[in-house]
Structures are given as C-alpha cells and as structure tokens.
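Structure tokens please, single chain.
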Amino acid sequence: MDIAVLVKVTYEPGSLKPDSATGAPQFAAGQLKISEFDKHALEAASALKPKLGSGIVRAVIVGKPKAKEVLKEVLARGADEVVFIGVEDDVQDSASVAAILAAAVKQIGAGLVLASEASVDSYSSTVGPMVAARLGWAVVSFATRIEPHGSGFKVEREGDEGTEVVEAQGPAVITVNESMNKPKPPTLMQIVGAGKKKVTEVTAASLGSPPPATKLESVRAVSKERKKVFITGAPDEAAAKLIDALAKEGVL
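Here you go.
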C-alpha cells in the first residue's frame, strides 16, 4: 500500500519581519523549513511502511519554487519520492491547498494519507479533514497510534474526554498528533541517499484542481500601540493617579 504524506514548507517564524508601513510579512527575507509537526507524519509513515507490505511513501508538497530548498530533507526523513506542486502565492488559504492536495492524491494513488494535526504557521487543523472530504475517504484526527487492521486501520486518538480507539476502513486520511513519536534527525547515509531519490514537479492546473472557492487576500502582523503613560509619586498618590487614568479609559 502506498502512503501519501502531506508536507508543508513554511517560514521560520523568527525570520519573518513585518513591513513597517503595511504590516505585511517580508517573505523574501524569510527562511524556509519543514513544518515541525509534519516531521511526525513522515516518521509515522516510515514506521508504517513495512507493516503495510509493498508500497512507497510519497511526500506531497504545495509551494513556491523557493520551497524546493527543503526537498532533500523531506526525502532524507523517509519519503521515497516527492511530488512538488508549484504555486505563485507565498500564502494560500487552507481550502485552496486542500483542493490541490486532494487532486494530487487522486492522480498518484494511495491507500493512506498522513498529515500532521496542524501547521506551525496557521494552526487551523483543517487541511487533513478537507482533503478527506474531497476524496470521500474516512478521516481520523489527532492520532497517537496507527496499526493496520483488516482492510483499514485501528487508530488511537486524543479526544476531548481522553484517549479513543477508532477503526477506520481504508482508504483513509489520518492526522498525526505530535505525541505519536519523536522524529529522529536524518543519518548521513539518509542525507546522501536523498539526492538519488525521485522528485516529480507538477502544477495545480495539470492536476485538474478546481479553482479555489476562497482566496486569501492578505496577511498582516497585529499592530499593538502603547499609550506609554508613566505614573509617579508616593504610593498613595500613584494609586490615585492610576485609578483616575483607568477611569478615563473606561476600564473602571
């Protein structure tokens, strides 16, 4: 059984600085990386692969051409192949990305899709379930353990009331909780071997992905303005000034 792993290439949060005038992130100076949570999905795929018999692990990535900088690490972390879907926008909304990923899975074929519970930037936790909806597959979220079970999978997941055990018929989409495993750094042999693995580049248009129903218009940093009011004086006097200042602001 082939496994498709949905991997997001995102920006290192500390490397993005907002434009002083517009508040928009300056993506050109940003450093790209694999979303930390997706490393858990790659690790889970590597562990499941021998249990599912013959088959390969394909990482499916949507990103700008610059995102190809991290493909070697994805391959070194256990993916046998990468399917890279090029887009032009720095940021896309979850619904658009899910439509593209679902179209890619349909084309390449897989019996199981693994994704992380969320990405480190938007943390919406929606892409995996939306991919499942477009494929018409079963979906289990926040998995902490996955085992093959008959024609499907037995999954332990973190629920609101505790740990749940769910049986899902294949094919299925399963999102992985970060507590499932501890991703190991690639070995030197894995890094060297990554350069020999296959990378297939396609476009969203070639996949027949439908036009997005929504479009992310802009992203801006939150602006926080401080009044910078300094209160001085003896404790009783300062307390009275503070109460007066808060009353004027409508807080009290």
